Every structure is written in structure tokens, then in C-alpha cells.
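User: My collaborator sent over this chain with a note saying "see what the structure looks like." That's all I know about it. Can you take a look?
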Amino acid sequence: MLINLDVPKSTETNFLRFWQQVAKVLGHDEHAVLEHLIDAGTTRGWFPSCSQLVDRFEETLGRSDAQQAVDRLIQFRLIDAGPDGRILSTIGGITSGRTRFAAKADSGTFFLRSAIDCLTIAPTLQKPVTITTTCGHMGAPIQLVFAADGSLLDSTPRTVTAFLPGWDGRSPLADAIVTKSHFFANGDALSDWQMQAGDPDGMPLTEDTFRFIGVEMAAAIAALYVSFSVREL
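Assistant: Without extra context I'll predict from the sequence alone. Here is the result:
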């Protein structure tokens, strides 16, 4: 299966490699379903259930193909669904509930799962996004402004850092990032959090590497959309 990645040089690279792999196999049907989910999540703040998605696309795709598209998106970790079929989040980490990662685009305000999602949401939507969150250690307010290509235009404070958690490529993606992917007000807050968290597997993103890694990850997630364009929300 696609999600069973080869042994990487470092677990941090699995996020990039996974998105690159998924970009090569997504088809028209999966793109159509994702576009619908992005629209629902960013404009209305809710998602249809998996069964409702199949019903929604039965006429245009055929029921069998619609079901297969939803199943493949779950397999590729682009839909996170509960046992009852309720969709919890989708590509870009867009969630159906409130979190401490608020994203604002021209479609309105919506919420994301974690810091890593904040780094990739702008190219996912192909539009500028402003993130409002808090330091994962001190609780201090943080604001980040991203261009449509994922490059960081501005941050408050200017000393913002982040932590990119490791992922083995097999365990649930949400488990790997939700509790470990944070922004921090400065390098000291990041270091203190790492120590208190028991030095978790992953990559600390300092002031010097924050922008570079963000753009690199944004380019990887944007590759998912190379063959189609998300409509204006």
C-alpha cells in the first residue's frame, strides 16, 4: 500500500515523501471530492459524512466510483473519518471543529489541526492565509501571514519557531501531529517544550530554518493540485 513508505533517512522526511507519492496517484474523482470538502470546510465549517459524500457524487461519478474515491482518500490520509463515517478533517488539516489554529482566507475563518497544517494550507487553497494561534509552551499569541505559494510574509513575534514531528509512515497521521506539531514564541520556548516533552522525535524549526522548511513542505502539498485548480471559494 502507498502508506507503507520505505525506511527513510529521517522520520521527518516522511511527510514530504508521502505527499509526493499521493500526488502521483490521485485521479479526477478524488480531486472532485476533495474540492467539495475544501469548500465545505472553509466556507461553512462542517463536512458531510462519508455516506453523504457518496450520495452527493453518485450522479456525476456513479455510486461505485464515488465510493471508491472516498475510500481511496481515507486510505491516503486525506480524509480522517471516525468509525461512524463522520469526517473529522481533510487535506490541509481543515477540521470540522474549533482548534487553537485559526485560519483566515477570503472565504472566511476556519480551523486547522496543527502547526504543520498551517505551513501548507495557503498552497492547498492557492490563496493568502493568515494564521492566529498561541505558543505551544507559553500560550503567548502568535500570528503568521502566508502568501498563496506558502511562503511566510510576516510573523508576530518575529522570533516564531516551530516543531515538525517525526512520523513512521504507518501510524495514524493525526496521532503524529496533533499533540506534537506546535508554533513557539521563540527558541527558548521551543527548547523548554522539547525538554518537558521528553525530547520527542522530530525536527525543531528555528528562526533560520522556519521559512525554508515551510516553503519546501508547501511545494510538496501543492503538488497534489498540479492537475486541477480549486475554484474560487
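A starting point for your reply to your collaborator: The helical segments are 13-25, 28-43, 50-61, 63-75, 115-125, 173-177, 187-196, 210-222.
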